[in-house]
UniProtKB/TrEMBL annotation:
Residues 70-202 form the FAS1 domain. Residues 1-22 form the signal peptide. This is Fasciclin domain-containing protein. It comes from the Bacteria. Coiled coil: none annotated. One of its GO terms (cellular component) is extracellular space. Keywords: Signal. It comes from Hymenobacter edaphi.
Length: 207
């Protein structure tokens, strides 16, 4: 009787042992899977959109430099290789701080070529210290209060300049002219106004 019970017990152990080992293996697999899944959630990558840098302000290319709306009129103009003469004139007239002010202003900015088209000696004469009052009149004749884009300018419109005299606007076939000067690059937006590049120096009648 005792021998029979011993034999039965050995048989039971033989069957139960693999099942127990298999059960332990399944538990370890489950634990590993759970750990892996947890690690995956924990190490998820950051949102790439949140980490991306803010885009640069859009601007207009003038004289080889990008004019952007986060800079004022003067800070934009000094970067243009086509406007070194008008920048020098603004400095000579003492108008830098004015054009860096809150404004807003609309500026019709002649290119270097426009100044070169004036009679010989005109620019040199205007830049002399004794001509500061005259130079100021010329420059302020290119400035209008307010921020006017090309779409705001209409055919036959008259603009009162900071100098006091008026500029007449002509619009034909999409081309905008102001005081006889053609706008070659419109809508250069700055933080304190708008600049329009023109191909001619505007001279007030009362100079």
């Amino acid at each position: 009787m005792k021998k029979t019970l011993t034999t039965a017990a050995l048989a039971l152990l033989t069957v139960a042992a693999p099942l127990a080992l298999s059960s332990c293996g399944d538990n370890k697999t489950a634990e590993t899977t759970t750990t892996t899944e947890t690690a995956t959630v924990t190490e998820a990558p950051m949102d790439s959109a949140a980490a991306a840098p803010a885009p640069a302000p859009a601007g207009v290319l003038v004289g080889g430099a990008m004019m952007t709306p986060d800079k004022d009129i003067v800070d934009n103009a000094v970067n243009s290789k086509d406007h070194t003469t008008v920048v020098a004139a603004v400095k000579a007239a003492g108008l830098v701080e004015t054009l860096k002010g809150a404004g807003p202003f609309t500026v019709f900015a002649p290119t270097n070529a426009a100044f070169e088209a004036l009679p010989a000696g005109t620019v040199d004469g205007l830049l002399k210290p004794e001509s500061k009052a005259k130079l100021t009149k010329v420059l302020t004749y290119h400035v209008v209060p307010g921020a006017l884009k090309a779409a705001d300018l209409t055919d036959g419109q008259e603009l009162t300049t900071v100098e006091g005299e008026k500029l007449k606007v002509s619009v034909k076939d999409g081309k905008v002219m102001v005081g006889g000067a053609t706008v070659t690059i419109p809508d250069v937006v700055s933080s304190n106004g708008v600049t329009h590049v023109v191909d001619k120096v505007l001279l007030p009648a009362k100079l």
